[in-house]
Amino acid sequence: MSANKTSIAGQSIRIGNVYFPKLPVILAPMEDITDPPFRKICREMGADWVYTEFISADGLIRDADKSLQKLDIYPEERPVSIQIFGSDAAAMEDAARLAQEKHPDFIDINFGCPVRKVASKGAGSGIMNDTPRMVQITERVVRAVDIPVTVKTRLGYDKNTKNIVDIAERLQDCGIAAIAIHGRTRCQLYRGNADWTLIGEVKSNPRMHIPVIGNGDIKDGAAALRAFDEYNVDGIMIGRAATGNPWIFKEVRHFLESGEKLPSPGIMEITEVCRRHVRMSAGWKGERTAVFEMRKHYCNYFRAIPNFKPYRIRLVTASSVSELEEILDEIEKTFC
Length: 336
Prior knowledge:
- There is one protein chain.
- By secondary structure, the protein is α/β, with parallel strands linked by helices.
- The protein folds into two domains: 3-258, Aldolase class I (TIM Barrel, Alpha-Beta Barrel), CATH 3.20.20.70; 267-335, Putative flavin oxidoreducatase, domain 2 (Non-ribosomal Peptide Synthetase Peptidyl Carrier Protein, Chain A), CATH 1.10.1200.
- It contains 16 helices and ten strands.
- The strands form two sheets. It has an eight-stranded parallel beta sheet.
- The chain starts with a helix and ends with a helix.
- The relative contact order is 0.12.
């Protein structure tokens, strides 16, 4: 089936007062990745909707500096979700109210993070073996705020409890406005291939009437097309494949609309976006933190460049913005 045919079949979706185009392509929330500078760049590159990093409910209600800083939103990012996580319903309710004060478009509940430090405390996807508590938290968050609440979750806790079809129905009954599903269980972490079969079952469930967004292993336009075509999801979410590669949103959109692969960006474009990213990050979180956290992006910004290892080592060991800019200048002269 061609990309054009799939685009014709796709439907635009509405969540609250926000209208999305057909086949929306969304930036997934990622810790230490989806901060305001990166979200802004991804929006410029065509992401239709972005999420903050996940924010601890306990941290918010205790005024922890790092949690409060994560509430920052640039006007250019919208539509944007503030995502919160926690295992206590009262804390999640209070955190949702605090998040709403920053005027996001949506509040998102993280029932999907699989990392041990979160899941072991019964938060993130660690709560997926306790459906009644998922429901309790969701009901209280929905009642606490005046804007749409969405949920991001997984297929289930482990291979024996892939109960997402039932969970999706129950969370919908709590009043959520949309659900995003990662095609792995909590115990899988990010291993193996994402299984979209159950995501498709949630979407085809005649009782479901809210948008269903699929997440997992969307690395290019062809994978995005298959997700829309085979599973009829209302949107797709891109996470790890966007790290250091914000162009993926432009590439996926181009493929969905034309069926053709967009040429990869050249060195000058890559270095310019990387340079802007570094500068914005330093302006938002301070130079030292920005230089350190940008290391997660460098390797991916330049992953397609052959014989790049010496520069990669220099990028990840640089200690200042000025040093990084000097290296980027050298990269332009060497590879252009």
